[in-house]
Design a protein that fits this description.
- The complex is a heterotrimer.
- Chain A is mainly alpha-helical.
- In chain A, 72% of the residues lie in helices and 0% in strands.
- Chain A has a single domain, classed as MetI-like (MetI-like fold, Orthogonal Bundle).
- Chain A has nine helices and no strands.
- The radius of gyration of chain A is 22 Å and the shape is elongated.
- Residues 8-17 of chain A have low confidence and may be disordered.
- In chain B, helix 7 packs across helix 8, helix 8 (172-207) packs antiparallel against helix 11 and helix 11 (242-259) runs antiparallel to helix 13 (278-306).
- Chain B has a domain at 98-276: Orthogonal Bundle (MetI-like fold).
- The radius of gyration of chain B is 24 Å and the shape is globular.
- By secondary structure, chain C is α/β, with parallel strands linked by helices.
- In chain C, 32% of the residues lie in helices and 21% in strands.
- Chain C is built from eleven helices and twelve strands.
- Chain C has helices spanning 44-50, 77-85, 95-98, 105-115, 121-134, 151-163, 181-198, 209-215, 233-238, 243-250, 290-294, and strands at 4-12, 21-28, 33-37, 60-67, 70-71, 88-91, 169-173, 201-206, 218-223, 226-232, 300-303, 306-308.
- In chain C, helix 4 crosses helix 5 (121-134) and helix 4 (105-115) packs parallel to helix 6.
- Classes of the chains: A mainly alpha, B mainly alpha, C alpha/beta.
- Chains A and B meet through helix 3, helix 4, helix 7, helix 8 and helix 9 of A and helix 1, helix 6, helix 7, helix 8 and helix 11 of B.
Chain lengths: 284, 319, 323
């Protein structure tokens, strides 16, 4: 059986010959993650300190990257915002990976009615774009990070579970599994100690690819004011706030978070695709 | 399998999935903490009469399944209930706002198909520096969410250069087209990158195939080799992304319409979500899911026409 | 005039230490059937493809490849296209891969001549129908897709397509390898008939010695980009004068040799990344001497039209292939 990662179409074309770009993206992703981890120590000012006098100011000694329409320090908001902007997608990826592995393994190992039920549900979830499912849940639960993260995790779960299912089906046919079964190892032990570690690299590559998309979806939600609570700095929210600044002819506080979103998504996409390619080549 | 039997089978499948989707959409309301009444009111004070009206509208005293079936029956008759925020029929709200959204999505779709195919074809055929430039720009496009594109385009083309209006829907077709140009580009950007990539890699795959060498060895001019053998053969793969493209366009209208204050369905979905106007959210969600499935059905029907190797019922769809 | 006349063809690929084709001389007279045999990687496919200037990207070619008297390697693009639609045509190994699965048979047959402006649609369709008849297929195939035909039928279609431009030279590159045995025999018989009927020169590239013996007037044996031996089919197979030909014949399974052992040739063909001094076959040759390792053997005439590029071909004089 041929097993393929589900990439969003298009990115699969990234191949070798991308050495320098890949390194650049890997470096940028590392910088963003570090910035998010160290943000409280790096941020020069309180990201929520309003200073109407300094509103829409350009770069200065006080505000290295200027200030937004409410006079809040853009650099500090970018740094602190990196935390929520990365934490959300991380949650989505963790939940969807764990859930997808469980669902996919169950479907493949148990087969029968459970398999067809899970496959049917997968089809159903595919019909809901991630953002729509998140909006639906937010309209019930109200704003906050957890509900949309869970909704997106559900939306992304089928990508992981379908992959896991086909991988486990292939793995199960290998002789060592029946050898362990004959020796009396339980299905749970075989899956936990052998099957799942064997398929993990491919599944994790899929999850790495999902990260960039989850970031885009969650930033979109907070742009709409539906994601993170209003006072929490977040890149999507900063883009929304920046709209006012742009209307007044001061684009800096909007352009910076825009650039942060684009570059981070691109970096994670390129790194994830590269990783997926390497895993695919190794398995061949 | 005969064409008619295939269509009927797919329609049944579509109905079953839609039924599941409607159940999800209906059931989501009951995930909310607290009683349905308090959720539906969500903090709004209500007179006893209004409460009674709500109870009557949602038949909150009936068992869950009965309520679902009654709601489904109404939906099938085009009755999506009344909007809590706007106090009018959801169907009428949608009818008023659908034209702007459909026009926006259609414009974006045209841009996506034309530019995506052109760029992909160009990159595959030219190679070298042209291809690298297209690869880099499509990588950027794929990393740009539509709301980011919307804000950046707004800043450059309406605030700074003043070429296009920064918000509103416009009156009359010409004015609407003018108002919707920037939003359509913002909506299209990500998908242009995606489609260009799909086209490019599908064409490169064909370019390496033996029948292309054979066509060249028989003296078929290079232009015709590209159009008749390479591009033509790549179209089947491109077609399978149709459902994904349309559903992405529809969902992202929520971002783009609110960025440009366009009075369409997307903006309505945003407003309905912030005001917890659940009947409206339900209707729009169902609409998007149904359109996605409909487009996938059309893609499945068209695929054998584009690629004779694909017979009806064997799907080669890219999910 | 010869249908094909290759003179001293050298072909250098990027990233290799020695030319993949090293001074190949080969002729196909009008109406003649010539077989070109060798192991995979010996350069036989490149040689036949050079007749249509289908060279790998980055390849540098020296020498002359004359098709109907014109040098293919130096002609301009328009002339080359005209040659490809007319004088020369190729039949490829795998008919399934050679045809575009998305285009109808009729379209495949006619596209080359109509797009080149040699015929209008009606003329082209008429010729396609008559050629389909010549290869034993009916006109109803015009509307079918390649996926609806069997491999044998499809290879006949490919042959018919090669004949569309009325070529003086037909290149068959392992044209029967991908087919099952019965279709193979049919296609071989068909090619023989067509050659008589249309008077085309045929260069038949194959690794199957039995097939080469059965079909061809003359045979070229190729090894590591050089012609090892050439001669009339009967003389060459019955009295090989190059140790490589002898070894190839010994390695060919024969049903009429009861209990005969197959003699595999020891060693590997030389690597393209290494330069060659002397005879390319020296490392695997039982007759090799110091001379063979240092001096490249020139083709020597051993009898009328029979040449062998071996320093020790006289040692094989009077030898017969093990039958």
């Amino acid at each position: 059986m041929s097993v393929a990662l589900t990439r969003r179409p298009g990115l699969a074309a990234l191949r070798t010959g991308w050495g320098p770009l890949h390194l650049l993206c890997l470096g940028f992703a590392a910088v963003v993650v570090l910035a998010a981890l160290l943000a409280p120590w790096l941020a020069p000012a309180d990201p929520n300190a309003v200073d109407l006098g300094g509103a829409l100011g350009g770069p200065s000694a006080d505000h290295l990257l200027g200030a937004d329409a409410a006079g809040r320090d853009t650099l500090s908001r970018l740094l602190i915002g990196a935390r929520t902007s990365l934490l959300g997608p991380l949650g989505v990826v963790v939940f969807s990976t764990v859930g997808g592995i469980v669902v996919g393994t169950l479907a493949a190992w148990c087969g029968g009615w459970l398999d067809s039920l899970l496959s049917r549900s997968t089809e159903l979830v595919f019909a809901f774009p991630g953002l729509l499912l998140a909006v639906l849940i937010v309209s019930v639960y109200g704003e906050g990070l957890l509900a949309p993260v869970l909704a997106l995790a559900v939306a992304y779960l089928p990508y992981v579970s379908r992959l896991t299912r086909s991988l486990v089906l292939a793995e199960r046919r290998r002789p060592y599994v029946s050898a362990y079964q004959v020796q009396g190892h339980s299905a749970w032990q075989i899956c936990r100690r052998h099957v799942i570690p064997n398929i993990a690299p491919v599944v994790l590559a899929q999850s790495a690819i999902n990260f960039g998309y989850a970031l885009m979806d969650l930033a979109g939600l907070s742009f709409l004011g539906l994601g993170v609570p209003a006072l929490t700095p977040d890149w999507g929210r900063m883009v929304f706030d920046g709209q006012t600044a742009i209307q007044h002819g001061y684009p800096l506080s909007a352009v910076l978070p825009c650039a942060a979103v684009i570059l981070t998504v691109v970096a994670f996409n390129v790194v994830g695709e590269r990783w997926a390619d390497q895993v695919a080549r190794r398995d061949r | 399998m005969s064409f008619l039997r295939f269509v009927v089978r797919r329609l049944v499948e579509l109905a079953v999935t839609l039924l599941g989707a409607s159940f999800v959409v209906f059931g989501a309301m009951y995930l909310a903490p607290g009683s349905p009444t308090s959720f539906l009111l969500s903090g709004r004070s209500a007179s006893p009469e209004a409460l009674a009206a709500l109870n009557a509208q949602y038949h909150l005293d009936d068992p869950f399944l009965v309520r679902y079936l009654r709601w489904l029956g109404q939906v099938l008759q085009g009755d999506f209930g009344r909007s809590i925020t706007y106090r009018t029929d959801v169907a009428k709200l949608l009818g008023d706002r659908l034209p702007a959204t459909l026009l926006l999505v259609a414009m974006a779709l045209v841009v996506v198909v034309v530019l995506g195919l052109l760029l992909g074809r160009f990159g595959a055929v030219r190679g070298g520096a042209t291809d690298s430039a297209i690869l880099v720009s499509t990588t950027l496009a794929i990393g740009t969410p539509s709301f980011v594109a919307a804000v950046l385009l707004q800043g450059l083309f309406s605030v700074k250069l003043g070429w296009f209006p920064s918000s509103g829907t416009g009156d009359g077709l010409a004015d609407m087209l003018w108002h919707l140009t920037l939003p359509a580009i913002a909506l299209a950007l990500y998908l242009i990158g995606m489609l260009a990539r799909v086209t490019r890699s599908a064409m490169l795959e064909e370019l390496g195939s033996e029948h292309v060498t054979v066509a060249r060895s028989r003296g078929v001019p290079e232009r015709q080799v590209i159009s008749r053998h390479v591009f033509r053969n790549a179209l089947g793969t491109v077609l399978t992304t149709g459902g994904l493209i349309v559903s992405t366009l529809l969902v992202c209208t929520i971002l783009v319409e609110s960025a440009f204050s366009i009075g369409g369905v997307g903006q309505l979905l945003e407003l309905a979500t912030t005001t917890k106007d659940f009947p409206t959210v339900q209707a729009i969600s169902l609409l998007i899911v149904a359109l996605f499935m409909l487009v996938n059905l059309v893609v499945d029907l068209l695929h054998p026409l584009v690629d004779p190797r694909v017979t009806l019922g064997s799907r080669r769809s890219a999910a | 005039m010869n249908a094909l006349d290759i003179q001293g063809l050298r072909l250098q690929l990027p990233g290799t230490a020695r030319p993949v084709l090293d001074g190949v001389d080969l002729t196909v007279a009008a109406g003649e059937t010539v077989a070109l045999v060798g192991e995979s990687g010996s350069g036989k496919t490149l040689t036949s493809r050079s007749a249509l200037r289908l060279l790998p990207p980055g390849a540098r070619a020296e020498g002359k490849v004359l098709v109907a008297g014109e040098d293919v390697l130096t002609m301009d693009a328009d002339r080359l296209r005209a040659l490809r639609t007319g004088q020369a045509a190729m039949i490829f190994q795998d008919p399934r891969a050679a045809t575009n699965p998305l285009r109808r048979i009729g379209d495949f047959l006619t596209e080359s001549v109509t797009l080149a402006g040699k015929m209008n649609r009606a003329e082209a369709t008429e010729r396609a129908v008559s050629l389909l008849g010549a290869v034993g297929l009916g006109p109803e195939l015009l509307g079918r897709y390649p996926g609806q035909l069997s491999g044998g039928m499809l290879q006949r279609v490919v042959i018919a397509a090669a004949l569309m431009g009325d070529p003086a030279l037909l290149l068959a590159d392992e044209a029967t390898t991908a087919l099952d045995v019965t279709s193979q025999a049919e296609v071989v018989a068909l090619l023989g008939r067509l050659r008589e009927q249309f008077g085309t020169g045929l260069l038949f590239v194959t690794h199957d010695l039995g097939l080469a013996a059965a079909i061809s007037d003359r045979v070229y044996v190729m090894y590591a980009g050089r012609i090892a031996e050439v001669g009339p089919a009967a003389a060459l197979f019955e009295h090989p004068r190059h140790p490589y030909t002898a070894a190839l014949l010994a390695a060919t399974p024969r049903p009429d040799a009861p209990g005969g052992r197959l003699a595999a040739i020891d060693g590997q063909p030389p690597d393209l990344r290494q330069e060659l001094t002397g005879c390319a076959f020296a490392a695997r040759c039982p007759l090799a001497t110091e001379l063979c390792r240092t001096v490249v053997p020139e083709p020597v005439k051993v009898s009328g039209g029979h040449l062998a590029a071996c320093h020790h071909s006289d040692q094989l004089e009077g030898s017969t292939a093990r039958v």
